[in-house]
Specification:
- The complex is a heterodimer of chains A (291) and B (355).
- With 291 residues, chain A is mostly helical.
- Chain A is 74% helix and 0% strand.
- Chain B has 3 domains: 144 residues, P-loop containing nucleotide triphosphate hydrolases (Rossmann fold, 3-Layer(aba) Sandwich), CATH 3.40.50.300; 55 residues, no CATH class; 101 residues, no CATH class.
- Helices cover 31% and strands 22% of the residues of chain B.
- The longest helix of chain B is centred in the middle third of the chain and has 18 residues.
- Chain B is globular.
- Classes of the chains: A mainly alpha (291), B alpha/beta (355).
- At the A-B interface, α8, α9 and α12 of A face α2 and α3 of B.
C-alpha cells in the first residue's frame, strides 16, 4: 500500500493515472448515458463549434462534425475501440515477443539465429503493406486488425527481451540456479522472467502508445475498423477535409490520442522506477534526503 | 571399483573428488562468420584430489583459471579432456537427471554475494529454491529453511527481506545457506570472502570452519588471498596460467615452497607486524601474465622467472616429486626457499641494525 502511495506522490504518475482512469471509464461508459447517440447525424446541426465559442450550442459540448454528430459523444465512444485494439494487440505482441526473446536469449546458438533472422524479416516488412494485403483478403474488421498489428509488433519485444535475457543468463544467480540443478524452463520462469518484469512493463507502455498511433494511422488511411465504429484515428481521418471549417473535430480526437499516448509513457517510466528493486532503494533514499 | 551411490556420505579422509588431466578450452571466435580462430587455454592437464572433511586451497592470480577449474570440478562446465570422478564414479559425461543428482552432493558459493542472489526473490524463497528443485519442499521445507538460516547465523525475521536490503556478510550467509540446503558433501567456495570487509571476512571464514566441523564438508577454497588460504586450508595447490605448479600440505607449500612462482607469491604476503613491512628482500615479478590464448612454450612461467634457462623453453616441467622436495612441484630447478621465514629473519636483522 505504501508503495502505491509513494508511486502516486509523483505528479506525473498521478496525472497519468488520472488520465488513464478517465480513458478507461470512457471506454466502459454505456452508450445510452452519452449526451447524444454517437452515430446519429443531424444535417441541420452540422459543424457547430464547441459550446464556449461563438455560435456554440450548450447541448454540444465539443461541437458537431460535418454531418451533425456530437464530437464529445464520439470521442468518448471512440475510446473503447482505440483502447480495445491497442491493448489486445499489445497483449498478442507481448506474448509472442517475450517467448521468442527469452528463448532466443537463453537457448542461444541456432535457435537464437533463427529467431533473430525472423525478427529482421519482420522489422524489414512494412506493417501497412501487410495490412493492405490482409484487408484485401478478409476485408476490414476489428479482429483482423488486432491480429495483424498484434502479430507484427512482436519483433520489438523479441529484440529487447533477448538482449536482457542474454545479460541475465550470464549473472551469477542464474549460474547458482544451474548449480542447484534447476532446468532451463524453471530458470526462464523463475529467474529470467521476473527480472524482465520492469522492462516488459516499460516496453508495454511504450507499446500501447505505439499501437494506438498505428491504429490511428491505419484508420486514418481507411484501413482500420469499419467506419461505423468511431475510433480516434478514424475521426482524425474523416475530419481532414474540414480542417478550416471545423478544426475541433480533429483537435479533440487528436488530443485524446496524444494525451493517452503520453499518459502511457509516463506511467511506464513511473512504474519502472518503483518496480525495480535497485532503483526503488535509490528513489527511497532520494525521498529521505528531500525530507 | 564398486559402484556405490554418490549419495552415500564419505568417511573423513576418503577421496571424494578426483580430477585427472582435466583441460578446459574456450574458443575464441572472430570475424563475421564467427569462426573459431584460437582457444583460451583456461585449464590444462590439471590433477586434483579432494578428500572428505578437508579444505583444498587453490591460489593464483586473477585470470589463472582458478574459477574455471572450480566450475569444471562441479560439472557446471564440461571439460574438453580428462576425467572427473565423484565418490568413485566417473561423472565426466553425466548430464540431465544424473547431473541433478550430482548437484545434491556438490554446491558452490560465489564471490559476489549480491550478484549470486536473484534480486526479485525474498531470502526465504532463495534458500527454499534448492529444496523445491529437488522436490523436498513439501515435506517440512519451511522448517528446513528456518533451520538453515539459524545454522548460518541469520535471523528468521529476515526471511521476507530482499537481498539488496541486507549487508554483504548477511548476503554471503544466504549464499552459504542455499548451498547447504541439500546437505552436500563438497562445497566449491569461489573467492567467498574477497568481496567482504576484513572484519566480515573473519566471521564468514569462521562460519565456514564451524560448518565444516559440524557437517564433515569438503571445501575447494579458491582465493587469491594467501593469508586467508593459509588460515583455512589443509592442502594447497598453486595455479599459474591454467596449470598447477606446486601442491602439497599447507606446511609444505608455505614453509618449504620450491617453485619460483610460489616463492614470488609468498614474498608478496605482507608481514604480520606493520612495523616490519618493507624490510625484507622481496621477489618482485616483472612483466605481465602471458595471454592464455598463446602460452609460452615449455614452462609457462619461464617468461617471468629469474631462474629460466634454455631447457625451460623446450620442455614443460611435470608436476612430480623432485629430489630433496617432499611434495610435487613443476619446475626444472626446484629448490626449497623458506621465503616467509627468510623475510621474517631479514626484517628482524634490519630492525636490529636500525635500532
Amino acid at each position: 500500500m505504501t508503495a502505491v502511495l509513494r508511486f502516486l506522490r509523483r505528479p506525473t504518475n498521478l496525472i497519468s493515472v488520472v488520465i488513464l482512469l478517465l480513458v478507461t471509464a470512457a471506454a466502459f461508459w454505456p452508450v445510452d448515458w452519452l449526451p447524444h447517440d454517437p452515430a446519429a447525424s443531424d444535417l441541420v446541426k452540422r459543424l457547430i463549434p464547441p459550446s464556449w465559442l461563438e455560435g456554440g450550442d450548450p447541448a454540444y459540448l465539443l461541437g458537431t462534425d460535418n454531418i451533425g454528430r456530437d464530437v464529445f459523444s464520439r470521442v468518448v465512444y471512440g475510446s473503447r475501440f482505440s483502447m480495445l485494439i491497442a491493448t489486445s494487440a499489445i497483449a498478442i505482441s507481448a506474448i509472442i515477443g517475450i517467448s521468442a526473446g527469452v528463448l532466443a536469449g537463453y537457448a542461444g546458438g541456432r535457435t537464437d539465429s533463427v529467431i533473430m533472422r525472423l525478427v529482421d524479416v519482420q522489422l524489414a516488412f512494412p506493417v501497412i503493406i501487410l495490412l493492405i494485403a490482409v484487408v484485401g483478403v478478409v476485408g476490414t474488421g476489428l479482429v483482423p486488425l488486432i491480429l495483424v498489428i498484434g502479430i507484427t509488433g512482436w519483433a520489438q519485444y523479441a529484440r529487447i527481451v533477448r538482449g536482457s535475457t542474454l545479460s541475465i543468463a550470464n549473472t551469477e544467480y542464474v549460474e547458482a540456479a544451474r548449480a542447484l540443478g534447476a532446468g532451463p524452463i524453471r530458470i526462464m520462469f523463475k529467474d529470467v522472467l521476473p527480472n524482465l518484469a520492469s522492462e516488459i512493463i516499460v516496453l508495454s507502455s511504450f507499446g500501447i502508445a505505439r499501437m494506438l498511433l498505428l491504429e490511428s494511422g491505419l484508420s486514418f488511411l481507411g484501413l482500420g475498423i469499419p467506419p461505423q465504429y468511431p475510433s480516434w484515428g478514424g475521426m482524425v481521418g474523416d475530419s481532414r477535409d474540414y480542417l478550416r471549417s471545423g478544426w475541433w473535430i480533429l483537435a479533440f480526437a487528436g488530443a485524446a490520442i496524444a494525451l493517452t499516448v503520453l499518459a502511457f509513457n509516463f506511467l511506464g517510466d513511473g512504474l519502472r522506477d518503483s518496480l525495480d528493486p535497485t532503483t526503488r532503494a535509490r528513489v527511497k533514499n532520494k525521498e529521505k534526503a528531500e525530507g | 571399483m564398486p559402484r556405490s551411490s554418490i549419495h552415500e556420505r564419505a568417511e573423513t579422509g576418503e577421496e571424494i573428488l578426483v580430477l585427472e588431466e582435466v583441460t578446459k578450452l574456450f574458443p575464441i571466435k572472430s570475424g563475421a562468420l564467427r569462426r573459431t580462430t584460437g582457444h583460451i587455454r583456461a585449464v590444462e592437464d590439471v590433477d586434483l584430489t579432494i578428500r572428505a572433511g578437508e579444505t583444498m586451497g587453490l591460489v593464483g592470480e586473477s585470470g589463472c583459471g582458478k574459477s574455471t577449474l572450480g566450475r569444471v570440478a562441479m560439472r557446471l562446465l564440461r571439460p574438453d579432456s580428462g576425467r572427473i570422478q565423484f565418490r568413485g564414479q566417473d561423472v565426466t559425461d553425466w548430464n540431465g537427471r544424473q547431473l541433478r543428482e550430482l548437484r545434491r552432493e556438490m554446491q558452490i558459493v560465489f564471490q559476489n554475494p549480491l550478484a549470486s542472489l536473484n534480486p526479485r526473490r525474498s531470502v526465504g524463497d532463495i534458500i527454499a529454491e534448492p529444496l523445491k528443485i529437488h522436490g523436498r519442499y513439501s515435506d517440512g521445507g519451511q522448517r528446513r529453511v528456518e533451520e538453515l538460516m539459524e545454522i548460518v547465523g541469520l535471523s528468521t525475521s529476515q526471511m521476507s527481506r530482499y537481498p539488496n536490503e541486507l549487508s554483504g556478510g548477511q548476503q554471503q550467509r544466504i549464499g552459504i545457506a542455499r548451498a547447504l540446503a541439500l546437505n552436500p558433501q563438497l562445497l566449491v567456495l569461489d573467492e567467498p570472502v574477497s568481496a567482504l570487509d576484513v572484519s566480515i571476512q573473519a566471521q564468514v571464514v569462521n562460519l565456514l570452519a564451524d560448518l565444516q566441523a559440524e557437517f564433515g564438508l569438503a571445501y575447494l577454497f579458491i582465493s587469491h588471498d594467501l593469508s586467508v588460504v593459509r588460515h583455512v586450508s589443509d592442502r594447497v595447490a598453486v595455479m599459474y596460467l591454467g596449470e598447477i605448479v606446486e601442491t602439497g600440505t599447507k606446511e609444505e607449500v608455505f614453509s618449504t615452497p620450491s617453485h619460483p612462482y610460489t616463492q614470488a607469491l609468498l614474498s608478496a604476503v605482507p608481514a604480520d607486524d606493520p612495523d616490519k613491512r618493507g624490510l625484507g628482500r622481496r621477489r618482485v615479478l616483472e612483466g605481465d601474465v602471458p595471454s592464455p590464448a598463446d602460452p609460452p612454450s615449455g614452462c609457462r612461467f619461464r617468461t617471468r622467472c629469474w631462474r629460466a634457462e634454455a631447457i625451460c623453453e623446450q620442455s614443460s616441467p611435470e608436476l612430480t616429486i623432485r629430489d630433496g622436495i617432499d611434495h610435487p612441484t613443476a619446475c626444472h630447478f626446484a629448490e626449497i626457499d623458506d621465503v616467509l621465514g627468510r623475510l621474517r629473519a631479514d626484517a628482524d636483522t634490519s630492525e636490529r641494525t636500525e635500532t
